[in-house]
Structures are given as structure tokens and as C-alpha cells.
Amino acid sequence: MERVVGTVVRGLRCPIINQGDNIEEIVVDSVLKAAEVEGFTIQDKDIVTLTESIVARAQGNYATIDHIAQDVEAKFGEETVGVIFPILSRNRFANILRGIAKGAKKVVLMLSYPSDEVGNHLVDIDLLDEKGVNPWTDVLTEKQFRDHFGYIKHTFTGVDYIEYYKSLIEEFGVECEVIFSNNAKTILDYTKNVLTCDIHTRFRTKRILKANGGEKIYGLDDILATSINGSGFNDAYGLLGSNKSTEDSVKLFPRNCQPLVDNIQQILKEKTGKNVEVMVYGDGAFKDPVGKIWELADPVVSPAYTAGLDGTPNEVKLKYLADNNFADLRGEELKQAISEFITNKDEDLVGAMEAQGTTPRKLTDLIGSLSDLTSGSGDKGTPIIFIQGYFDNYTK
Fold it and tell me: Would I find Ligase among this entry's keywords (predicted)?
């Protein structure tokens, strides 16, 4: 019978994961149970993805704001700390900021504008034009910002992040000054001791600060890169990728995930005889057209994946073939011509006209985005995603 369904994506339910749980066993059992109950057959090149959250929970990779404060105080001492380029997020940054404030004497908070790194807007860019403000050159004080734009609440959260972040710092009796600039060097006019909180541009920011007179320069990836008095930690990413856990703690991005995905792949091979690819995923890499939020607030989409997920797609554009190479064909003859073209396509289609418009991204970024959109971040209860047919094409 002719195949009429291509890629199939299923969100799998599993038990609530807690510290110390055997995550490998839970994932494998969940996949096998789903296959039995739903009546699908596990095949070679199927993909199992699991959200970073359940991995970190099983690892017990947590830290309190006191742990953060201790690390900040150890690194900066009595110095005024410049906290620059944080993202605007109660879930992602509020508890981190509270920990920073608790470990500091004074904070100069420098916010990028009109939006943060991942697209959360403080102010609409059209308002900047209206007020004659150039975000690439103009440095604003809090009063100047308010005089220009007033009090603006976030589209989705209803939070005035300037007021909110300032209140979190002052909660600990710490003096806070707020400024607005997109130039990292601006903060050096206020303090030479800086904690840069950007995610994907952090290495450049630290390099610029150090080259222009910065003294104590750290990123969020340097905070809790090692355990502080028994806390969780992440040696590669520190606090990057962490989320609020309780009112006084955060869950860190999981660490040392490669043995986990390799072991799950091996166990599934032993139980099914099939070679299934496995990856851990965090935020997908996509942009919301309404809120303008670029979703990727984790340091990477996938901290670990099996070898078969390395690389990028090597695909041709079907509609290009139909409109150009085989424009005079129809029906079964067209189908056969396209199928033959795909079967004989080059192993590397970079630069080929037939590949234009296909997605030039890493497989793990594409699959991670697909998984993140499927599992969601709320109450679906499907932190394991099972994907079939992803590597198939028109001929299979």
C-alpha cells in the first residue's frame, strides 16, 4: 500500500520526575509502553527526545539564592557590581537577580533597549523613532527613559520589568541604579566590575569589557560553574539555562548528559533491536511573530545527542523541481522523475539551486524546536517526544 503519512511526532506521558529517579529506565519504559498502547512499531532512525528539565530534576541540579549570593560575593567582594544585558523574565532571571543582589553592596543594572537579547521588549522600536532616541548611541538614565516612554508593561506578562527588577535588588537593602545602553563599554563608566548576563553574545561582551579596562569580569556561565557548599552546578554553563524552581531556588541546566543519551540508545537497541537516536532538548530556536520573542533562552538547544543527529539536512525543494526541472511533467511521470532525482541527489547540496529555500540549520536545532513546540512548557505532561519518519523523504 502506498505510504500517505510522513513525519509523525508524539508527546509521551511519563511519571513526574524527582531527584534520584532512574531517568534512563523511565524514558525507555515510557517509549515501550507508548508503542504497545498506541500500536506503533519502533523503527531504525526513530528519535527520542527528552526535555532538559526532567534530566536536571533527576540529577537534583538545584541551587538557592544564597548559593548564588555566596559565589557573587566571593568573586566581587565589596565592589559595586555592574549587572548588564539580562533577559526580561520572571522565570529565567528573577531569582538569579535576587541572588546577585544578596551578594552585592551596590548594583548598577544596565538594560539593553528596545528589547533584551531574546526579544522581550521594554519599549516599541517605533516609539524610539518618535522620540528621536538612537538605541545604538544613546545612553539613558532611568529618569530619561521614563520621561521619554513612561511606564510600559510587557505584552504577555503585564510586568514593568524596570520597576520589577529594581524592586528585587532593593529587597535586600542594596542600592540600585538603572541605566539603558546597548554598548557594553558604557558600564565601565560606572564600575570596572561587571557580571554580564547575556547568553549567546557573552564571549564577545566579556572580551570587550576586559579589553577596555574591566577588572573583575564574569558571565552567568561563571556563576555556579562549581558547587557552592553542596549546591548544584554546571561546569559548562553555570547559571545559563536555569529556571525558577521555588521562591528562593533555581533549577540549573543539566550537566554531563552525553552518557545519558548514549545509554538510552543502547538500552533501546537491546530491547527492540533498532537503532534509535536520542537527544536532550531545551528551548527551541524560533521567533514569536506577535510578542517578538526569540525563544532560545538556553545556552544551546541540545546539550547532548547521539551521533546520528549530527549535521544538517541535505534536501531538495520539491516545488522547485516541479516548477523548473520537470515543469512539463504531470501525475505519475512527475512523481517518478522527482523520486529519481532525490534518489540520485548529491551528498552535499550546498549552493545547489534545487536546495534553495530548504532549512540550513543543524538537525538538533530543528528537532529541538519541533520537540519544544510539541511538549510545551505548561501542563501537557509530555516531556518525552517520539518522532518517526523525520529522515524519510518523498521516495520512502
Answer: yes
* DSSP H/E element including 262: helix 258-272
Bridge-based pairing of strands 140-141 and 243-246 is: unpaired
Phi first, then psi: give them for residue 312, nearest 5 degrees: -130, 160
- Return the bridge partners of 189, or none: none
Q: What is the layout of strands, in order, in the sheet containing 277-281?
A: 8-12, 384-388, 47-51, 277-281, 304-305
What grid cell was written down for 203? 564571549
Report the topology of domain 8-60+255-313+361-388.
60s Ribosomal Protein L30; Chain: A; (3.30.1330)
CA dihedral 236, 83, 90, 155 (to 10 degrees): -120
In the prediction, which pLDDT does 357 show? Answer: 66
Q: Does residue 282 contact residue 118 with C-beta atoms inside 8 Å? A: no
Cβ–Cβ < 8 Å for 220, 201: no
Give the H/E segment covering residue 47: strand 47-51
Name the DSSP letter for residue 17: P
CB under 8 Å to 371, separation ≥6 — which residues? 9, 49, 51, 281, 284, 385, 387
pLDDT below 50 — which residues of the chain? none
The pLDDT, as a whole number, for residue 186 is 98
What single-letter DSSP state applies at residue 314?
-
Q: pLDDT tens across 283-335, in order?
A: 887 777 777 777 789 999 999 999 999 988 877 777 877 788 888 889 888 78
Instruction: Give the pLDDT confidence score for residue 339 in this predicted structure.
Output: 78
Start and end residues for every CATH 3.30.1330.100 domain found in the chain: 8-60+255-313+361-388
pLDDT of 333: 86
**Cα(122)–Cα(339) distance, integer angstroms:** 50
Beta bridge partners, 140, equal 180
| Angle (CA) 301 224 253, round 5° | 25
- In sequence order, the β-bridge partners of residue 178 are 109
Measured CA distances, 248 to 64, 225, 231 (Å): 6, 19, 13
| Euclidean distance between CA atoms 222 and 71, whole angstroms | 9
The pTM of the full predicted model, rounded to 2 decimals, is 0.91
